[in-house]
Write a structure and sequence with these properties.
Distance between the termini: 56 Å
Number of strands: 8
Strand order of the largest sheet: 1-7-2-5-8
Largest sheet: 5 strands, antiparallel
């Protein structure tokens, strides 16, 4: 039986099936809102990053690699990543709905798209997807859904022709560590607890992450938690005390000190700089 069952969810509208679809230009990320993308974080939907021009670095599962022009980077849902484009980089970051008809690779992939026709096809699909209009309109929604499926098919063809990278021992451990951090985010577990879960010492984890992403294990954990806190300060009205508790900080005072050390601002100052004038 064919795996493809187009538009099978007849009880859902196109807009409901496309919930979470979001496109962002890459270039402005180097000038504003850098904290949103340049520190480790994860999306609940698969992410596709298309780099049309320029270069930079991407970190996925605590492993940093460079990228160049005509690169397509696929990041599965709930996988921690960060991206640091140069000022001249041009591209698109897309959060794609997790559709049965539009599967993406189950593991992170970095694909260099040398074929000009494939480059043009992907650029065109993303441009038109970004101009989809009101997705509650059935025709617009069907067109957007079809383009998501076409993007999936294009990525599948490209991935088929590019064998996946064989991770080194340190890369495998870094991936396991990054996924433990995601799974335990907010639990208050420290580096020693995660080391025990992975059956390695904190010292070994630190040595590994220095090699894979030029951070210590503690720095990675701090960056991941500070990003989660920043997101909640910027996008919600939750108090600093509530955020501190939800992310496993020992106290609101400790959270304020840690946040200030990482960002140079108090939670209140950061929230105000992001346009949310709320009391912490």
């Amino acid at each position: 039986m064919s795996r493809i069952r187009l538009f099978e969810s007849r009880d859902l509208s196109e807009a409901e099936r496309l919930a979470g679809l979001r496109l962002e230009p890459i270039t402005p990320l180097s000038r504003t809102g850098r904290w949103r993308r340049e520190t480790p974080h994860a999306e609940h939907l698969p992410v596709l990053i298309w780099i049309a021009r320029g270069q930079g670095r991407v970190m996925i599962d605590a492993q940093t690699r460079g990228f160049g022009p005509t690169s397509c980077i696929v990041i599965p849902a709930n996988t921690a990543f960060s991206i640091e484009p140069t000022p001249m980089t041009e591209g698109t970051l897309v959060c794609l709905p997790d559709l049965f008809e539009a599967p993406l690779p189950a593991t992170p992939r970095r694909l260099r798209m040398a074929d000009i026709s494939a480059q043009s096809e992907l650029s065109g699909l993303l441009d038109r997807l970004g101009q989809a209009g009101d997705l509650t309109d059935a025709a617009n929604g069907r067109a957007a859904l079809a383009r998501v499926i076409l993007i999936s098919a294009l990525i599948e063809r490209q991935a088929r022709n590019a064998p996946p990278e064989t991770p080194s021992g340190p890369a495998k451990l870094a991936r396991r560590f990054a996924r433990e951090v995601e799974a335990r985010l907010g639990n208050g577990d420290n580096l020693a607890v995660i080391g025990d879960a992975l059956d390695v010492t904190p010292t070994h984890l630190t040595r590994t992450l220095r090699a894979t992403c030029n951070m210590t294990a503690a720095q990675y954990m701090t960056a991941r938690h500070i990003h989660a806190a920043s997101l909640r300060l910027a996008d919600t009205d939750h108090s600093a005390a509530n955020i501190a508790q939800s992310l496993g900080f020992g106290s609101a005072a400790y959270f304020t000190r840690a946040f200030g050390k990482a960002t140079g601002k108090t939670p209140t100052q950061f929230r105000q700089s992001e346009g949310r004038m709320r009391t912490n």
